Amino acid sequence: MNTKTRKFPDGFLWGGAVAANQLEGAYNEDGKGLSTADVSPNGIMCPPDFSMEQFNLYHDGIDFYHKYKEDIALFAELGFKAFRFSISWPRLFPNGDEVEVNEKGLQFYENIVDELIKYNIEPVITISHYEMPLGLVKTYGGWKNRKLVEFYERLSKTIFTRFKDKVKYYMTFNEINVLLHAPFTGGGLLFEDGKKNEQDIYQAAHHQFLASALAVKAGHEIVPGAQIGCMIASMITYPYTSKPEDMFAALTQDRKTLFFSDVQSRGYYPTYMMNYFNEKNIEIEMEEGDLALLQDNTVDYIGFSYYMSFVASTAPEHNDEKTAGNLLAGVKNPHLRSSEWGWQIDPVGLRTVCNQLYDRYQKPLFIVENGLGAVDKVEEDGSIQDNYRIDYLDAHIKEMKNAIGDGVEIMGYTSWGPIDLVSASTAELKKRYGFIYVDRDSEGKGTNNRYKKKSFDWYKNVIATNGEDF
């Protein structure tokens, strides 16, 4: 490695990332409609009757809706160069299929954008992040219905038109491949027998690919110089042994993720996926012009989350050695330690993923989620000594810097949850990610006041030195 190239570039987008449904609260204020998250009190599961009776932390979040100025001021104190946030689709279009936008909802996001710009923080907008309007599930059956392409295109054009002079960076769908693993969360899909139906899932994926391509097309037309990326939940898969069968199992597992970035970055369905469709008797309904649309409107960069790696094995005895994380699961790696929630910690895997994606696409990468969920303790003096979080992030940022030394083009890094928020997978607050502590627990009790953790000053220094200490 040439040490001279092992350096974060000037203009590197250091910051943090959040999702609307996990921190905004105000779930029924100012004309907002219900989202899929609003009926998912346990995270990725929802009551079959969409009941609102169970307590749901998403409803109030951490009240970012009313505290965004206070929180953005803290992000500015951290020195953020970028802040990734998502638009709540039902805050703009309450049922999802309206023609006219809810102006109060749109104004809220413009207020956020203006506040970020005030502090010279680059807004990075995720158009859809696990919060589609519940009305689109009830009326249309979610993303398996092609009508949603039209509704999403309207959403994206509304956003581009309003922010065209203020926002340059966008992502179309958060962790689009999670549709395979959590169909309701990722696509508003429900199945009568409770078993996943791959025909519906991959049809929904095709519709999301079309919607993403139309957003890329509109964004490039409406916003001069727009940078629009895809976003996948990424994790490298290792073979459990050197057996050729394990190696192919690892390749097959990785393809389940890479299929989604392949279509959005390369613009076509890969042969391995067409073969899979044939084997499983899956027939994707397409209309004339679909493939040309995908080919002509590929993304500008690859955004991805990285929290862990997985292992693949063909040995039956390893089936009971499972580990889970970020809505996915795999065989446990005996060489890695795990977080309190069983997510295996693999900093070197981040370097490997960066090389894998850059070798495959030769497009800039944007690491838009990475972090450690942990139980934080407030000491008697009011401090939060989260050295474990510092150690986790320190190790991953070092490997990101190593990837840059490998020749990988990385445009930014936004850690997940710079402020404590509601967990997507478990809908709890005791699993904390932030540099900023929020005084609220998983029962909804607390003052909602914000406090700096030890990691706050650490990350502030990372940004201020542009990662030179690594």
Automatic annotation (TrEMBL):
<dbReference type="InterPro" id="IPR001360">
    <property type="entry name" value="Glyco_hydro_1"/>
</dbReference>
<dbReference type="GO" id="GO:0005829">
    <property type="term" value="C:cytosol"/>
</dbReference>
<dbReference type="GO" id="GO:0016052">
    <property type="term" value="P:carbohydrate catabolic process"/>
</dbReference>
<dbReference type="InterPro" id="IPR033132">
    <property type="entry name" value="GH_1_N_CS"/>
</dbReference>
<comment type="similarity">
    <text>Belongs to the glycosyl hydrolase 1 family.</text>
</comment>
<dbReference type="InterPro" id="IPR017853">
    <property type="entry name" value="GH"/>
</dbReference>
<keyword id="KW-0326">Glycosidase</keyword>
<dbReference type="Pfam" id="PF00232">
    <property type="entry name" value="Glyco_hydro_1"/>
</dbReference>
<protein>
    <submittedName>
        <fullName>6-phospho-beta-glucosidase</fullName>
        <ecNumber>3.2.1.86</ecNumber>
    </submittedName>
</protein>
<feature type="active site" description="Nucleophile">
    <location>
        <position position="369"/>
    </location>
</feature>
<dbReference type="InterPro" id="IPR018120">
    <property type="entry name" value="Glyco_hydro_1_AS"/>
</dbReference>
<keyword id="KW-0378">Hydrolase</keyword>
<dbReference type="GO" id="GO:0008706">
    <property type="term" value="F:6-phospho-beta-glucosidase activity"/>
</dbReference>
